[in-house]
Design brief:
The structure holds two protein chains of two kinds. By secondary structure, chain A is an all-alpha fold. Chain A has helices at about 1-35, 50-55, 60-95, 95-110, 115-125, 130-150, 155-165, 170-205, 210-220, 225-255, 255-260. In chain B, the strands form two sheets. Chain B has a six-stranded mixed β-sheet with strand order 6-7-8-3-9-10, with helices on both faces. Chain B has a four-stranded antiparallel β-sheet with strand order 2-1-4-5, with helices on one face. Chain B is globular and about 50 Å long. Classes of the chains: A mainly alpha, B alpha/beta. The interface between A and B is medium-sized, with 20 and 22 residues.
């Protein structure tokens, strides 16, 4: 019995950690092999050791710029998601407000955010705030839409139950709708977590004073492709971490969701 | 306990007006178990929702304990076809939901909830989540949630129809026991003749659209009744046969219904 459980435990570790690690190593190996096989110059496509070398060469600088990007991303993600969820609650409470403002919000969302970046600098200035606002703009809409979908997807039998108990609007909202919406809210948060990094980088490419986006800009100007790759690697790690952080939070907060969706 | 006079209800649908119920006159006595039986779409659920105060009749009136029903009452509880449990609440907290919504002191009713769970054999599952329970157990939880209101009237809308045959019989027998123990007035909508004969004092047979009261059938078989072999096989067979006739011969001339 104990043997079986340890076996199962080992299997779990292998499936959850071993397989992803193996996949990553294989991808790195293929990348490296391609650079060797076709003898590609580091200027075009640096091999993994070149990128590692760039990390070592400028580790302090990269860490500092990564910190800046991380602050922009997390602050924008937090503000944008909170605002999106709050507006969704407002819309759920008042159909009049929803009808009045939803088309406007949908239209604003359809504008490519990158095109707004120069305007944000005009309005807000050459500072970190303009970049955070860019992240906010990207995170707001997916959380708004998914939260609204969640709040309006309460099944009929639960609605009728609430009615038969003469539950007030607020009681139904707090005890039924809000929790019912959480799994959907997390769908939006996961989308927003990926968009947050993109928003931060758009901001930094437009105003490349600080952050990993500015590292990419300056390194390509000096033809230091390995350094650009180092910055991109950090961005990828940051984005993936944020995504898995949200996923982990979902498992802790709505453990029942996986059970009822199967 | 319940007095229905001249109840009618029409709905405005996309394809015109649908008459769901026409002129229902029916009294349900204190502690009586009334089964309402009829084909799909005969308005039995509509009738139940009118008694519950969830929808208003187009004409007529319902009195519960002497008061006209205008909105859902706390002493009238409903059990639906599906358990309608909140998936994130434990079994006990699902049972306590009405207590919270009524803003009753939770501490006082916790013991009551545990007693109800014991009565339905769910004590060991009080802290589990609904999805860990079988369909039959979930429906037991929803029955406990209705009973925690200490209802004078229990309204049940085909509560066992989503369950497998054996679980259905098991729950029907259990409901009979609970009804005998608590003496609550029950209106039980079903399309199962078997359930109606097992549980009811009287069976109201509704005709198809518009739903009218076709006949009230007395089931004078002593309790506790049971499925399968028992001392009153002939009475059960006779009552079942009469209900069959009433439901099947609906579109035939009236003479064929007299057996």
């Amino acid at each position: 019995m104990t043997d079986k459980t340890t076996d199962a435990g080992l299997r779990r570790v292998w499936v959850n950690a071993g397989l992803p690690a193996l996949g990553t190593l294989l991808a790195l190996a293929i990348w490296w092999l391609i650079t060797i096989a076709f003898s590609i110059e580091p200027f075009w496509l640096p091999a993994p050791p070149d990128v590692v070398e760039a990390f070592q060469r400028l580790s302090g600088h990269l860490a500092e710029q990564a910190g800046v990007t991380l602050i922009e991303t997390v602050a924008g993600f937090a503000i944008g998601s909170t605002a999106g969820a709050a507006v969704a609650v407002l819309f759920a409470a008042s159909r009049t407000i929803e009808r009045m403002t939803m088309p406007l919000i949908a239209a604003v969302n359809a504008v490519p955010k990158a095109a707004l970046a120069p305007l944000l600098i005009v309005w807000i200035g050459l500072n970190i705030h303009a970049k955070i606002v860019m992240v906010v703009l990207l995170c707001f809409f997916p959380v708004l839409v998914s939260t609204m979908a969640g709040l309006t997807s309460v099944p009929n039998d639960l609605r009728e139950l609430a009615n038969s108990l003469s539950s007030s609007w607020w009681q139904t909202f707090l005890k039924v709708r809000l929790t019912w919406a959480l799994p959907q809210v997390f769908v939006g948060l996961k989308v927003a977590s990926s968009l947050a990094i993109i928003g931060a980088v758009i901001g930094e490419l437009t105003n490349p004073d600080r952050g990993l986006g500015s590292v990419v800009v300056s390194s390509s100007q000096s033809a230091d492709t390995p350094l650009a790759f180092a910055a991109l690697t950090l961005l990828a790690i940051m984005g993936a971490s944020l995504f898995y952080l949200v996923t982990g939070l979902e498992r802790v907060l709505v453990p029942w969701a996986r059970a009822i969706s199967s | 306990m319940i007095k229905m006079t001249g109840l009618s209800r029409t709905f405005q649908g996309k394809s015109g007006t649908v008459e769901a119920l026409r002129d229902i006159n029916l009294d349900v006595g204190n502690g009586e178990f009334l089964a309402v039986i009829g084909r799909s779409g005969c308005g039995k659920s509509t009738l139940l929702r009118i008694i519950a105060g969830l929808i208003r009749p187009s004409r007529g009136e319902v009195l519960v304990a002497g008061d006209p029903v205008e909105r859902p009452r706390r002493d009238v509880a409903m059990v639906f076809q599906r358990p309608a449990l909140l998936p994130w609440r434990s079994v006990r907290n699902n049972v306590l939901l009405p207590v919270e919504i009524f803003r009753w002191p939770r501490a006082q009713h916790r013991e009551h909830a545990d007693r109800l769970l014991e009565m339905t054999g769910l004590s060991a599952f009080a802290d589990r989540l609904p999805h860990e329970l079988s369909g039959g157990m979930q429906q037991r939880v929803s029955l406990c949630r209705a009973l925690i209101q200490r209802p004078k009237v229990l309204l049940m809308d085909e509560p066992f129809s989503a369950l497998d045959a054996l679980t259905r019989e098991e729950l029907a027998v259990e409901l009979q026991r609970i009804h005998m123990e608590l003496g609550t007035t029950v209106v039980f909508v079903t399309h199962s003749i078997q359930e109606a004969v097992l549980l009811a004092d009287r069976v109201a047979v509704l005709s198809a659209r518009p739903g009218r009261l076709r006949k009230l059938v007395n089931v004078a078989i002593p309790r506790p009744r049971s499925f399968g072999h028992n001392a009153h096989l002939e009475d059960v067979a006779a009552a079942s046969a009469e209900l069959h006739q009433l439901l099947l011969n609906e579109h035939m001339p009236a003479t064929s219904a007299t057996s």
